[in-house]
Amino acid sequence: MNLDKHTRSLVDHLAAASDLDSAAAVLNWDQQTYMPPGGITARAEALATLSRLSHEITASNDTARLLDAAGDPEPGSDAEAVVRVARRDHERATKLPSRLVVETSRATTLAEPAWRQARADNDFDSLVPHLQKILDLQRETAEHLGYRDHAYDALLDRYEPGATKSRLEPMFEDLKRGTANVVRAVSTADDRTAPLHGAFDEGKQETFGKSIASAFGYDWGRGRQDRAPHPFCINFGGPGDVRVTTRFDPNRLSPALFATLHEAGHALYEQGVDPAYSRSPLAGGVSLGIHESQSRLWENVVGRSRPFWDHFYPRLRDAFPEAFGGTSPEDFYRAINAASPSEIRVEADELTYNLHVVLRFELEVALVEGSLAVTDLPDAWNAKMEEHLGITPKDNARGVLQDDHWAIGFFGYFPTYTLGNVLSVQLFEAALKGHPEIPTEMERGEFATLLTWLRENVHRHGKKHDPEALVENATGRPPDTAPYLRYLEEKFGELYDL
Ligand code: ZN
To answer: What is the pLDDT of residues 410-463, one digit of tens each?
Structure first.
């Protein structure tokens, strides 16, 4: 980074906060992968201390003084971006009392295993005290952060700078209206997923998934894959250590396979950020919506396409000859793209996925504004499932307890999944326009042109540009739902003869 003396001092000062966040991320990764259950109490305290120290540095008078000294660097420069992002982080941190940061960290760390247990036992009541505590802390956080129209906006802005409830609502309406006919049509179609059920050796699943991540360009010298109850991607301060996790189902191929493609997409983004931004305010992906555009691009737009499987299906068949010996490539393609309303978000097809997000968005808005009580959540969940997807979950474990987001304090996070879906297609189309040879390369199992385009237009910039500016620079247009709706209509129209 080419920085003047003052901005360099600011970055050097804030690097300590970045180091504390990286250390917290390692502890967090360990908690979700290898930590024995007995470690939870001490881990909650260690994480609370690290978040307090990081918060204190970001909010400190020293940071304020260095920000003042840095002034207003030249627009478009790295220095300008550093100051803009650091100032935003500083202002946000000064609004939050240390006590609230510590309490939130401790409460969410303790709630994570409680959520796991509640889901395993199908026991929503056991989670209620945790959820209530975390919701209270989230509402208090929103009041401290401040907002113009709705408390929800303050929470959402943490994940998607600039996004608001009132700007999301028309997007969700567009998507609901734009897909209603196709969703109705697929709801009555026969099940096509039979080829994906059978006996799938976990070791072979792992090897096959890793071979695809390698082909995408995931660098194992700067990453690794472990097992965790919830697949995720995490990095420690820069592109040099970007890890993923997955989980295996010995009787079903798709959960681990598509989770691996998805997390590899997140990881490619983090591995592609300019290394010069490491330990600075510009390190890492710019927003969760942009992050999810990368994971969904590789998982769906690439990983559920015909050109992709032209190359990989023969290899999958070699890995699992008994399961796929009698399945044609076309039947396999139809199986991985089978659409129908279902209970579980992370296993939902591309068409109905956003309905799962709308439901969560509506419920978390109601929780934050106080029009829905935590104890009424299961009933409200089931009513919304009926309203949006026309089904009722078998039990709370497969309903309101399926995701950990609310238990770990991620209010305002869900909408970024849908933003990511929308942007995945807009970005892919822009790459295709510049490089019409991308699908032909995919048929050969090659992704270098696509990855290079994403590196150049999205990854390398880290947090330098705000999300909307990044999309506009990369595609020539602001974020737009039209390409995504067109993509869904064409893909599922063809699959279901509509
Ligand atoms: Zn994701």
So the answer is: 999 999 999 999 999 999 999 999 999 999 999 999 999 999 999 999 999 999
Could you tell me the two tokens for 453? 């385009």
CB-based contacts of 328, cutoff 8 Å, min separation 6 = none
pLDDT at 128 over 90: yes
Would you say residue 249 lies in a domain?
yes
pLDDT at res. 189: 87
Q: Is the pLDDT of residue 282 over 90?
A: yes
> Looking at the structure, do residues 481 and 402 belong to the same domain, yes or no?
yes
CA distance 480 to 293: 13
Give residue 250's pLDDT.
96
Domain boundary residue, one of 115, 146, 177: 146
CA of 99 to the centre of ligand 1 (A): 30
* pLDDT computed for residue 306 by the predictor: 97
pLDDT tens digits, one per residue of 294-313: 999 999 999 999 999 999 99
Query: 273 alpha carbon to ligand 1 midpoint, in Å?
Result: 17
Instruction: Kindly tell me the number of DSSP H helices and DSSP E strands found in the chain.
Output: 21, 3
Residue 234 lies in a domain: yes
Check whether residue 70 and residue 195 sit in a common domain. no
Domain contains 155: no
Range of the domain at 478: 165-495
- CA 157 to CA 176: how far, in whole Å? 23
Q: Cα–Cα distances in Å, from 325 out to 88, 208, 314, 330?
A: 56, 17, 10, 13
Distance 296 CA to ligand 1 centre (A): 7
Residue 69 CA, ligand 1 centroid: distance in Å: 38
CA–CA dist 44, 64 (Å, integer) = 29
DSSP 190: P
Kind plus residue range of the DSSP H or E element containing 65? helix 61-70
| Candidate list 263, 292, 343, 364, residue with the active-site label | 263
Type of residue found at 8: R
| Total tally of structural domains belonging to the chain | 2
Alpha carbon distances (Å) from 187 to 181, 457, 475? 10, 38, 34
Residue type, 444: R
Question: Rounded to whole angstroms, how far apart are CA atoms 355 and 244?
Answer: 27
Provide the sign of the torsion angle of the four alpha carbons 204, 210, 212, 214, taken in this order.
Answer: negative
Span from the CA of 420 to the centroid of ligand 1 (angstroms): 9
> Whose CA is closest to 156, among 346, 369, 299?
369
What per-residue confidence (pLDDT) applies to 230? Answer: 85
Is the same domain home to 310 and 454? Answer: yes
227: β partners: 246
Residues 383, 467: one domain?
A: yes
Query: Is residue 263 annotated as a catalytic residue, yes or no?
Result: yes
**Is 223 in contact with 267 (CB distance < 8 Å)?**
yes
Does the structure show a pLDDT above 90 at 396? yes
Question: What does the buried/exposed string (b/e) look like for 464-475 if buried means 16 or more CB atoms within 10 Å of the residue's CB?
Answer: bbbbbebbeebb
Residues 324 and 239 in one domain: yes
